[in-house]
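S1.2 Input.
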Amino acid sequence: MRAQYDVILVGAGLANGLIALRLRQLQPQLKCLLLESDAHPAGNHTWSFHHSDLSAEQLSWLQPLITVRWSGYQVRFPALRRNLDGDYCSIASGDFARHLYAAMGDDLWTNAAVQQVKPTQVTLADGRELDAQVVIDGRGLQPTPHLQLGYQVFLGQEWQLAQPHGLQQPILMDATVDQQAGYRFVYTLPLSADRLLIEDTHYVNQPALAENTARQHIADYAKQQGWRLSTLLREEHGILPITLSGDIDRFWQQQRGQACSGLRAGLFHATTGYSLPSAVALAELVASLLPTDASTLSQHIERFARQQWRAQRFFRLLNRMLFLAGKPQQRWRVMQRFYRLDAGLISRFYAGQLRMRDKARILCGKPPVPIGEALSALLNSVEPGKKK
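S1.3 Output.
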């Protein structure tokens, strides 16, 4: 007789990993299985968020996962350099993986390639079939014709330096670098007094990055900053979706009733690509619903994701102005103008909690791109399914 699980989580990335940890905290009696096709869970990533993105209760249970926290951050543009207050936090995937191993034990299977996922069944590549009350698919955003996307592509390197770097805060965006084919900036996290994560980041129309060029960009940037690179500790790269528009009804029809999480459920900040706050909220939702049947869970997750979609309509509008108005190498002007705004507004922007007056303030005044193209991007705002 095959083992019967309460829940099987397919893919041990951020979203499913947080669900697994929250279930272990709140419902340890549930029989939960976490599957990962790679040799280790959590991949090779750094997940970051602003302290103000989460509630006090959320921060309380997420706190043990945080690798490093800073007080404030910087942004740099050709005509603006600014320090902003508010704690900024990062979770290293290696630390996250250690928490998953400790919490899940034998219920975390690695090197477990999956052939097929159904709402109550998983078929592994070796032919084994696993049954569950519910299966949650968290294997990343699947190809879809129902979302119009731009992309944030990046390559990051973690370096041990030959001497201290002197940074006290992260540099979230340094857009004083050459812009090239899209909005480009360098993102830097000071992980210790002599260790840095440096990412070459681009907002572009196609999900591709010349990795060797990005590596040279990082080396050149470090030299410009006076940082002496000594030992390369690791390298990560990523492609984050930036949503311009989409048909949310058809996107969810594509899921065919399958409960899903993370990028696969479209749960990420439309403009920044940050996914941790949504993943935390989803973990709490799932933990509050289980045990339940697959159909009920899928409906609740879809409802949650549709609420997020409606709440981010304004962000998609801004994305269209960023990607569709003006020349790609001038996109930095949109971001420079944004970072001149009130610090509270910027904080609410990252948290996805803009007020009506915030939206008005962002749009008022002369746009930093050609007016005709800006208006065309702004007016191109009708989306199927927006009333759902």
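S1.4 Remarks. The chain has a mean pLDDT of 93.
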